[in-house]
Specification:
Elements lengths: L3 H14 L9 H6 L1 E3 L5 E3 L16 E7 L6 E6 L5 E2 L7 H4 L7 H9 L4 H4 E2 L4 E2 L10 E4 L4 E4 L7 H5 L2 E7 L2 E6 L12 E2 L2 H17 L4
Antiparallel strand pairs: 1-2, 3-4, 3-11, 5-12, 6-7, 8-9, 10-11
Bound molecules: iron/sulfur cluster (SF4) (2 copies).
Length: about 220
């Protein structure tokens, strides 16, 4: 199933939002491999990725996260692949132009605490940030000076935005899988940080525990 938002964007927008390291000629086939049931939840079909794609070859399964039985404490995170690097380029492209993300209760509280009026950002039906007619999140804006898209609430952005380009799948009550969403300009950039146990502890652990606590997985 193709993502309706991706269909809605059309080929020109697809070429525009591809990471610079992707060849424009691969855009249609890249995006035709993405299936998405809702924004921020992209499923990637690696087997149909074009041969020339530089992201090809990466396993979408990054790590297994095991909890101590019957608790919400992490026993260990076992990384299944080495060599993956990531640093967010703050391009606000893929994670922001495919719709407003789903919100946790604490995301809403954080935004309200910062002075944003709930009626102006909350899509009640989707329980997410309101999506503009062009499919982008209402908080993405164009930095015309640098010709880049930016998140206007970056420091208080929602949990799922902090998690991107990773996603977490629950296998059972004690076992979760950390996955990679390969549509991101920050994957394997030269100055990227190794995505390993330290990276998980520093950047992803708190997000993961927050998602578990909110029963969002
Ligand atoms: S997560 Fe990826 S797509 Fe989103 S702003 Fe960062 S580099 Fe860009
Ligand atoms: S809140 Fe910010 S990071 Fe999240 S989708 Fe919207 S613009 Fe992008």
């Amino acid at each position: 199933m193709s993502c309706s938002l991706i269909k809605q964007l059309g080929p020109e927008s697809l070429a525009e939002i591809l990471p610079s390291k992707c060849s424009p000629s691969t855009s249609s086939s890249c995006f035709s491999t993405i299936a998405c049931s809702q924004p921020q939840h992209l499923e990637f079909t690696a087997t149909t990725m074009p041969q020339r794609c530089p992201i090809m070859g990466l396993n979408e399964k990054i790590a297994e996260i095991r909890l101590e039985k019957g608790t919400k404490r992490i026993e260990k995170a076992v990384f299944l692949q080495n060599g993956l690097k990531f640093r967010c380029q703050r391009c606000a492209v893929f994670c922001c132009r495919l719709g407003g993300p789903r919100l946790l209760k604490k995301d809403i509280e954080r935004l309200e605490g910062a002075g944003y009026s709930r009626e102006k950002f909350h899509d009640i039906e989707q329980n997410g940030i309101i999506t503009r007619a062009d499919g982008s999140c209402i908080f993405v804006s164009m930095d015309s000076k640098h010709g880049l898209f930016r998140c206007s609430i970056y420091n208080i952005r929602p949990t799922l935005c902090r998690l991107y380009p990773f996603s977490i799948e629950k296998l059972n009550s004690d076992l979760y899988v950390l996955k990679l969403i390969p549509c991101c300009s920050g994957i394997n950039v030269e100055n990227g940080e190794c995505v390993d146990e330290r990276f998980f502890d520093e950047f992803l652990k708190e997000i993961f525990l927050g998602l578990i606590d909110s029963d969002a997985l």
